[in-house]
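Q: Hi! First time doing this. I have a protein sequence and I read that you can turn it into a structure. Is that right? Here it is:
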Amino acid sequence: MTPEAIARAVLDGHVAYREVFDEITFGARERFQQADWAGAQQASTARIECIPKAVTDVVAALALDPARDLERWRAARAPYTSLIEDRADRRLAETFFNSVYCRIWDHHDITDANCFVHSAFERREPAEQPLLKAYPGDDEGGWHAVFERILTERSYELPWQDLERDVDFAARALALSLPGVPVSACDLELVTSNFYRNKGAYMVGHVDHPEGRQPLAIVVLNDEQGHVYVDNVLTDEDGLSIVFSFTRSYFMVRAPEPARLVVYLNTLLPGKKRFELWSSIGYYRHGKTEFYRDFLAHLEDSDDPFVTAPGIRGMVMAVFVLPSYQIAFKIIKDRFPPQKDTTRDHVMASYTLVKRHDRVGRMADTQEFSNLRLPKDRFDPELLAELLEVASRTVSVEGEQVLVKHCYAERLMTPLNLYLEQADEEALREALDEYGNAIRQLAAANIFPGDMLLKNFGVTRHGRVVFYDYDEICYLTDVNFRHIPEPQTEEQELASEPWYSVAPNDVFPEEFPRFMFANPRIKKLFAELHGEIFDADYWKSLQRAIEDGQVMDVFPYRRHRRFASRFGSITEDGPSPRATGGTGT
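A: Yes, that's right. Below is the predicted 3D structure, encoded as structure tokens:
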């Protein structure tokens, strides 16, 4: 096979992948209208899996010999660059080329000679289709006229539950965020395609006004009775940032020119890295490419050392950070203590589960790397010595480089146990409430964290509590929750060890307080907020709901921000905050 034929075969594989990706994505609107929430979850998983399948197909078709065909592969890079230079998705095409190379050559020798470590193209993106639709304001009709036009134009086959009410609520919410600003001085623009995730449809855009640009997201829900309604309008960067959080599932959005969409989203969310935004719209492989490019650039522009991550050292993972970059690198240790009944393969499978599962705003997304090479002189000597001791199968020194054969990278957060040590009374109560909400929402999404110690949860910059230690994670429906049996004899009552049989998947929630909290005051406060978590019947009720096919509501804003709470009861039969959270926290 000639280099030109290799290039064409790789591009054909990329095109096939994009066709599957787009087909799944374009089905999001119909799934939303049908309230097909189980189908939405299945589609999300299928879309994640479509790129590795496409790479597998290309690798099989190329049948290259890693020992003999590297030069032909290198020669294919130039014709491939020519083939993709006019494509609107050329950056994604570069990443597909990289993925094929890494599959064949097992992530060795990651250089620009072999793949696209750096992009072959300038940052300027081609513009072929309109990205935004304008809805200019005018004082005569006010924001009511603007939102009536938006909701009417972007209507679904389903009727609005109460269009006049929703227009009024949306207009009031935006007006409250722009006090004293004339509507005629504002220009509202929305991305032409809606963003779909879980049970929500999001119209994302901005409002330009005399003092600057303000992000905007209109959240539309399906009441599952054949009507749609506006549940919220988000009007600030923090609110939109949580919507595009690394702890949530990827959006489904039509993006013929995805790089332009990411650049635009970055103008709304300048505090986010572009690699996070690429991942947020489903291109998680390219998010990894962009992360690596950004990380290499940061290494060049910084001089602080890699150091051990703050907090209690884990029994399964060795974790280190580059403080100036706010990313944690996690390496599986060579050996685990006896109390950790797990294997390396199980840990890796757990991280894959999280990648594919609905993270409901409570689990951190990760990037997985193989054969990552880092400069030795950037490592704190004590950290390097520790890594070589506890993870010698994974970490080695080769000249002036440290080779990490396998690791995970995720956003650095403040460990919850450290956060609580510094928290005042109000912050303590808020964090413990968040901790309980995280456990509850994970459970309602069919995830049991396993090890629920405080140190395994982190606090984000928005104050949300997120789970990030996945080595004991499992599906909630695979757990057998039990009450501790009542002792029948004095010997049983005084026994130091359980006198009753315990199977590997048995869990006794009554025991949670003993290992979750060392501080009696914190234990008591948590019990006041979330005492149900210590009751086996609570967990069993969640299992029954999951087995009955219920899909929980979790939206990225607090209950009190929903229109039903802010502006009063919507209708007698309309939406209201639901017991399962419906709303994020």
